[in-house]
Fold this protein.
Amino acid sequence: MKKEEVFFRRRQVWHYYTQGYNQLQIADKLNVSAKTVQRDFQMLRKEAIEWFNTLRYGQIQLHHKSNFDSNQKVIFELWQLYEGEKDEDKKLKILNMISHKTEISSKMLSNEIYPTNCERW
């Protein structure tokens, strides 16, 4: 498989993960094995740790705040969608996304995401 194809698939894996899909669902959506998705997650994690470790201390906090703020904005926009939605199935999906994004925010605040020492991951 070409590097570009692997790169694109890993971005799709990450996209689906941020939408609340689990590894088996992602594998099914991408028509690959669960083991492939697991390897993609391992590589994405490795790349993130390598990138994270290149940042100076002040950059880490700035990046963390920016990501937290972006996540909060998404939550706000999801609530707006929820309030305007009439279809109950769509409302449930939106609530699931809100729950997932809120969990991410909680982890960010508790330092489970972006810990001071990235190797603790």
Observations:
- The chain has two domains: 1-54, 56-121.
- Residues 114-121 have pLDDT under 50 and may be disordered.
- Helices lie at 3-18, 23-30, 34-54, 57-84, 88-109.
- Residues 1-54 form one domain.
